[in-house]
């Protein structure tokens, strides 16, 4: 587990009223228990990880700093009840916390896609957090912050992206060690696209009677997996 970091309230940071945005677009949610829902996506710039299977490297740099209130207005204009904040790693930006609260105050269902390498304790409780635990094939499994297991609530989901049998066994062992299937949040398994056939993962889950939610990254089957804004 990473060493404890000093607690800094986001509202005390000068840039907490804005974030650096890479893109905002409307699509269909491709994964999690919210898959299939019409959803606005707000992708923020920057990430401190370099996962081998990253599909959003274009979000590491660039983007434009924008006021949170303007972002909320643009998302509201897209006329969808659901918004996902993603990255990169959105929790690197202090302004993301008041941004998520702004979406909630506007009456939106708010999803957060985060790496699992930052404790989510400061995220507004009403936000549906999708926490991506990094498996060994990502090259970043040592960066996982296991404090998330106690910071997550019944709104939330813990995601494992599986690229090999080693990833699967590692994930299964972590679930058993921490009693994750007894936690209030859901547990999701999906494959690294084009690295492990989804049928193989499904067969492992069935064989082991593992009570997780098997899922596909639906958007990668609907559109070009390297496409932007989908």
UniProtKB/TrEMBL annotation:
Keywords: 4Fe-4S, Iron, Iron-sulfur, Lyase, Magnesium, Metal-binding, Queuosine biosynthesis, S-adenosyl-L-methionine. Substrate binds at residues 28-30, 43, 86. Its EC number is 4.3.99.3. Binds 1 [4Fe-4S] cluster. The cluster is coordinated with 3 cysteines and an exchangeable S-adenosyl-L-methionine. Binds 1 S-adenosyl-L-methionine per subunit. SUPFAM superfamilies: Radical SAM enzymes. It is an enzyme of class 4 (lyase). It catalyses: 6-carboxy-5,6,7,8-tetrahydropterin + H(+) = 7-carboxy-7-carbaguanine + NH4(+). Its cofactor is [4Fe-4S] cluster; S-adenosyl-L-methionine; Mg(2+). Belongs to the radical SAM superfamily. 7-carboxy-7-deazaguanine synthase family. Catalyzes the complex heterocyclic radical-mediated conversion of 6-carboxy-5,6,7,8-tetrahydropterin (CPH4) to 7-carboxy-7-deazaguanine (CDG), a step common to the biosynthetic pathways of all 7-deazapurine-containing compounds. PANTHER family: 7-CARBOXY-7-DEAZAGUANINE SYNTHASE. This is 7-carboxy-7-deazaguanine synthase. The lineage of its organism: Bacteria, Pseudomonadati, Myxococcota, Myxococcia, Myxococcales. The gene is queE.
